[in-house]
Amino acid sequence: MKNNEQQPEFLFDKINYKILLIGIGVIALGFILMSGGGSDDPNVFSEEIFNFRRIRLAPTTVLIGFGITIYAILKNPKKA
Fold this sequence. Notes:
With 80 residues, this protein is mainly alpha-helical. Helices cover 55% and strands 0% of the residues. The protein has helices at 14-34, 52-74.
């Protein structure tokens, strides 16, 4: 029996996975901010769907989350 068994090498380092999970969390937060604002009665129009949170804040949060995940994928931990 040999002691030179190869350890499986992960594609990313631990820091990459942490940043990736943070990015996924930010994306989920953006979609949560985007939800709601509808009306229970289909005959009644609600202006709540056009407020700042759903039109500006939530899509910006989702895009920032995508940027974080792209950074986590492209980050090379082997460099100094």
